[in-house]
């Protein structure tokens, strides 16, 4: 099997589906590498397949490290507004041969995971606002 050239495959993806900016795909590749390293540390440096939920958690951590309080702004610029959009990017990459999946992996793995405000904005709110939001939600 011929090795897939990332840039060429990305050009083909974007020609078919332009919902997400090229940088979103580049971020996905970097975040997957980050996640695999995180999972590898937990599993005595053994490389293994990363689940959708593990990838979403790694994406969250990596995005906060890279973009801090600007994360949602950056994602919105790339057309990414929720976890399902990450799933669409992943499966576009799978269909182009850039990523592999198991029989258990589906787009549903990226449904209803975390809310972008909770994951990317709330960590940077002043403590008083976070407490107020928690009190409002809990009653």
Describe the structure.
The protein is mainly α. It has one domain. The chain has helices at residues 6-16, 22-42, 52-67, 71-77, 83-95, 116-121, 127-138. The radius of gyration is 16 Å and the shape is globular. It starts with 5 loop residues before the first helix and ends with a helix. The mean pLDDT is 89.
**Low-confidence segments:** none
Whole-angstrom Rg: 16 Å
Q: Give the number of domains.
A: 1
The number of helical segments is 7
- Bin the strand percentage: under 5%
> What would the average pLDDT be, to the nearest integer?
89
User: Share of helix among residues?
Assistant: 55-70%
Query: Could you give the count of β-strands?
Result: 0
Shape: globular
Distance between the termini: 58 Å
Give helix and strand order, one letter per element, not per position: HHHHHHH
Give me the secondary-structure category.
Answer: mainly alpha
Q: Could you describe the largest sheet, including whether it forms a barrel?
A: none
Any key phrases for this structure?
139 residues, mainly alpha
At a glance:
By secondary structure, this protein is mostly helical.
